[in-house]
Amino acid sequence: MRIDLHCHSTASDGTDTPAELVRNAAAAGLDVVALTDHDTTRGHADAIAALPRGLTLVTGAELSCRVDGISMHMLAYLFDPEEPALLAERELVRDDRVPRARGMVARLQELGVPVTWDQVARIAGDGSVGRPHVATALVELGVVPTVNDAFTRDWLGDGGRAHVAKHETDPFEAIRLIKGAGGVAVFAHPAAAKRGRTVPEAVIAKMAAAGLDGIEVDHMDHDAEARVRLRGLAAELGLVTTGSSDYHGSRKTCVLGEYTTDPEVYGEITRRATGAFPVPGAGGT
């Protein structure tokens, strides 16, 4: 089985619609794909409706978190999307996205970059507007060569010249909310140092004690040394380890199935979840 547990669609900051994502996942030879858009489940229904036969969908979301001033992401799998407490927290994060993005546009304009809100809104389309959309605008304007190059202290990275803070959930609260909604919590790309400061291992240990289920190990932002270190940490803490592409369509260079999750780990995730269940494809529409 080929299992990719971290993908994005136009419901947040990917370039594939949810329907295109699942069709492309099947074409890439995947057996299981997770739709984990940022702080939203809006794309799930369209993905399920288009799900090709032979492909299973894991519903989820990637939650924006912050601990000790460090931004991080928590992957939530197979939770009840209507559970009130987690739903309210997702809405709180999403509601902060537009004023934050407008603030980044204003700061870029102060720096002499001719970006406009209309340009960013066009790029975001129906998705939840965020930094990747502003970053794409910088690429369009020739300010930076790639989206990743915008995520530095020169531009949109944490503490950067055009960075604007947003509401982010405390990860311990996120774990509690995910568990309360019957889901499974996995810390996304914990060693992605190019994105900014990373969470210390001592804090990850505290998260494990609070109910964290796993950490994402095989990821494009982790080099070989980081993967070895993370596997050792996971073994020490009793955490499962996942692998995934963090696919964003054409917005990033990664491809579907570039990194995958072991079938035994996938089975353990599905056994732990009580809020929702994987959806087998019925042929799509």
Short overview:
38% of the residues lie in helices and 15% in strands. The chain is an alpha/beta fold and 285 residues long.
Q: Give the number of helices.
A: 11
Give the overall pLDDT as a whole number. 95
| Major sheet attributes | 8 strands, mixed
Q: Write the H/E string, N to C.
A: EHEHEEHHHHHHEHEHEHE
The percentage helix is 25-40%
Describe the protein:
This protein is α/β, with parallel strands linked by helices. It is 38% helix and 15% strand. It has helices at 18-27, 44-49, 84-95, 97-110, 117-124, 131-140, 147-150, 171-180, 201-209, 224-237, 263-272, and strands spanning 3-7, 32-35, 56-67, 70-77, 184-187, 214-218, 240-243, 279-280. Strands 1, 2, 3, 4, 5, 6, 7 and 8 form an 8-stranded mixed β-sheet that branches. Helix 2 links the parallel strand 2 (32-35) and strand 3 (56-67). The longest helix is centred in the middle third of the chain and has 14 residues, at 97-110. The radius of gyration is 18 Å and the shape is globular. The model has no long low-confidence stretch (mean pLDDT 95).
